[in-house]
Model the fold of this input.
Amino acid sequence: MRCPYCSDSSNRVIDSRLGREGTEIRRRRECAECGRRFTTRERVDGVLPKVVKRDERREEYQREKLITAVQKACEKRPVSADDLERLFDRVERHIQELGQKEVTSRRIGERVMEGLVELDPLAAARFASVFLDFQGADDYRNFFASVKDLQRKSGSSR
Done:
């Protein structure tokens, strides 16, 4: 592990803790060269299924693509980075638990939308507008009506 400040590879672990519901280890390190401290995170690389796109192409699951799309939807919204990390972890756990070799991008997107609705309905609408290819105001109206129904059923008023 190289120091992010001076790029030296000699450092020592000062502290290790379990993080994110026990799915990762957080390590505080100190660089032997410059003395600065930094944090690293370790987690097991899970075997995730291939993603089947709308046009039937198959590609490897890429967490970074999902992060980019969701961050755009959450821009200037009160959604914390920790909340998003937990959402991504839940989505990945869900698709791993399916036990399938392939999962559709639609299924992943629906799972993300469900999580975003709980975090911030407006961010969910932004995500849905691209994911579901909204064409006009009626699409937004229908989306928010379904969110309202979900909130009524769950007793949430966010």
Observations:
- The longest strand covers residues 11-19.
- The radius of gyration is 19 Å.
- Strands lie at 11-19, 24-31, 37-43, 50-52, 58-59, 102-104.
